[in-house]
Amino acid sequence: MSTYARQTGRTVTLPASLDEAVAALAAMPAAVPVAGGTDLMAAVNSGLLRPAGLVGLGRISEIRGWSYADGHALLGAGLTHARMGRPDFAALIPALAAAARAAGPPQIRNAGTLGGNIVTAAPTGDALPVLAALEATVVLAGPDGSREVPVSHLLTGMDPLRPGELLAFVRAPLLHAPQTFLKATARTGPGRATASVALVLDPARRGVRCAVGAVAPMPLRPLEAEAWVAGLIDWDGDRTLEAEACTAFGEYVAMACIPDPADHADPANPAAGELPPAVAHLRRTVAALARRALGRALS
C-alpha cells in the first residue's frame, strides 16, 4: 500500500510494489522516481531540479534482488552498489561488482543504485561501460505494461523512457568467463572516473567486448579493436596473448575512442593536428586501461 506525505511543497509517494509505483507516476506525471537519490537530491538541493513530486522506490522489495532465467541474471534496479560489491554477486558478474566497489565512498555505495546509475546516465557512471560491454537490456515498467530495450538504446536516446515509465530490471548475460573493470580517477581513492574500461570475454561466441566510459557522453564500443583481438585468441587453447598484442589492443581502443583531429593530415599546418596535452594524456590513460583489462582477462 502506498504512503503519501508532503515535504517542502512537494508530494512524496512511497509505493510498496512496482504496480503501485507505476500507478503513482500515472496519477502524477510530473513526479520523479527516486531510489538512492545520490544524484537526484544533489540536483534538487542545488536548485537545478524542481520536481512537482517524488515517487520513492525504496520500499519495493522486488527490485532490490536478482533472479535467473535462460542464462541471464535479472537484476533489480534498486540493487545498491554496496550489495553488488559483495562476493556472492561478484561470483555472477565480476565486472559489475568491481564497478560497484569503485562507485565512491561508503555513503554513496550504500545509497546509490544500479537503476539510478543508468537513468541519471552521467558519463562517469561506473556501471554503464560494464552494461554496454555485457550488451545488457533494461526492463521498463509503465502504464501500458513492460517492455525491454538494449541499455545502449536508453543511454543514447534511441529508445528513451516514456511518460509514466520507470526502470524496473536489468537483464545481463551470465557469461561464466573472465571480465574486468578498471578506472582512472583524478585523485587517490574513490572518485569520479576520468576514464574507465570494461572488458568481457564471451567464449561461446568467441568474442571480446570492450566499452570505454567517462571520455564521451555515453560508453563507447571500439568494435574493430574487439574483432581484431578476438581473431588473435586461441579460443580452444590457453587463450593467452603476447604482451605486444595487448599493448597494440590498448592503442587500438584509445585511437578509436579518442581519434585524431579532423585536420590531422593537413600538410599546410602540421601543428593543427596535434592533440591538446590533456587529451593526449587521456588517450594514453585509455590505452593503459584497455591493455591492463585485456591482460587480466586473459591471465
Automatic annotation (TrEMBL):
Domain of life, per lineage: Bacteria
InterPro entries assigned: CO_DH_flav_C_dom_sf, Diverse_Substr_Oxidored, FAD-bd_PCMH, FAD-bd_PCMH-like_sf, FAD-bd_PCMH_sub1, FAD-bd_PCMH_sub2, Mopterin_DH_FAD-bd
Domain FAD-binding PCMH-type: 4-177
Keywords: FAD, Flavoprotein, Oxidoreductase
Stored SUPFAM superfamilies: CO dehydrogenase flavoprotein C-terminal domain-like, FAD-binding/transporter-associated domain-like
PANTHER family for the chain: XANTHINE DEHYDROGENASE SUBUNIT C-RELATED
Protein name: FAD binding domain-containing protein
